[in-house]
Amino acid sequence: MIFLCEVCGTEFEAIRHAKYCPNCRVGAYRANNTQKQRERRADKNYISKKINFVPVTKKCLYCGKEFECLHPSQKYCSDECHKKRNSEWAMNKAHEGKVRICPICNNELPKFKDKYCSKKCSNRANAIRRGECQDHGLLTKQCVVCGKEFQTFKSRKITCSDECSRHNKSVRPTTSEENRQKYLKKHPNARRKEDIIREAQEKKEIKRANYEKWLAQKEVEWAENRAKKEAQKQANIAYWLEYEAEHECCVCGKKFIANYPLTKYCSDTCKRRNYKVRDTRHRYKNITVDRGITLPKLAKRDHNQCQICGLFVDWNDYIKTDKTTICGDMYPSIDHITPISLGGLHSWSNVQLAHRGCNTRKNNKYVG
Questions:
Q1: For residue 115, what pLDDT is reported?
Q2: pLDDT at residue 49 in the model
Q3: Are 270 and 249 in contact (CB under 8 A)?
Q4: pLDDT tens-digit profile of 87-106?
Q5: What confidence score (pLDDT) does residue 150 get?
Q6: C-alpha triplet 215, 220, 226: angle, nearest 5°
């Protein structure tokens, strides 16, 4: 059968009735589902419609409060009322058919009371258990602060209210020393322990005092040493600022005046030359070196001809200034056939004459 797509309007074949072509089917279904979800969120009574329930106003079986619910079997307005009702039911079930009596006032216990009918009876039972009152009766006493008579279950209570208790604590002197003396009379061995503790504290105080005295002495010594070091440092700085002496250059042998005793070179040129020699020594440290190889001898052997490109070298291709000499690409140089970095030797069989430019372009490659 041929149908017309509702989205794109194209005709398509299908076995049964269909609204969308295969290309639009997934997007259309997804859009419809999204639209239905939005409508369900907007409709507050969707859940009741889904369950086929209508909101009903009921009365809570525990607190009597009216509330709206969707489920017809709901009986309580909240979880708290439900839990309380369950606890009451469990208590009644446990004491079902029993008459329970308070052991203090002999009255019948109300619901949800397990042992005593009230907080007052509970406090009285605790006082009897501690031995503060007898015969389940109240004690009549006189307040030590205001002189007023009051009744209490506690035999040790001496004030009628919290205000009188605070006033009594602020006025009455401390009784810690009296209690300590009473304890020492009952326990004679405790006095020896106190003596040991006191002796240990005295030793600790003496040790602390000695340490503080030693620390004060050391601080004075340290301050003097710091002052001496600072004065010596300033004297050294003044000495080196005024230092002038005649030195001899270790490269060219020229004498010069230096402002520092460890100065070895008369100029930067000699310094660079010495560093270059030292670097060359480091390169040739672990290989056999023929000290007789020089540039004039090598040029005479190779007839002043570059062994890389075959052209003659130019001995005049350089510019000399006051401080240095700049050589051109045609100036002769010593080239190692097998580079030293690849294991070659500095010997007559491994050296050849080459232009500086050719030698630089060759780098550390082997040219057969």
A1: 79
A2: 47
A3: yes
A4: 776 666 555 566 778 887 88
A5: 85
A6: 120
CA atoms of 113 and 127, how far apart (whole Å): 20
Which residues have a Cβ under 8 Å from the Cβ of 173 and sit 6 or more positions away? none
Domain(s) labelled CATH 1.10.30 in the chain stretch across 286-362
CB atoms within 10 A of CB 135: 6
Provide φ and ψ at 10, rounded to 5°.
Answer: -90, 155
CATH of segment(s) 286-362: 1.10.30
Please tell me the pTM assigned to this model. 0.28
Q: For 304-320, how does the pLDDT look when each residue is reduced to its tens digit (9 = 90+)? A: 999 999 999 999 998 88
Task: Give me 144's structure tokens.
Answer: 């030590």
Note the pLDDT of residue 112.
Answer: 66
For position 44, what pLDDT does the model report?
A: 47
Contact 327, 346 (CB under 8 A): no
Residue pointed to by tokens 């130019």:
314
Ranges under pLDDT 50 in the chain? 44, 46-51, 136
Structural contact between residues 289 and 346, judged by C-beta atoms closer than 8 angstroms: yes
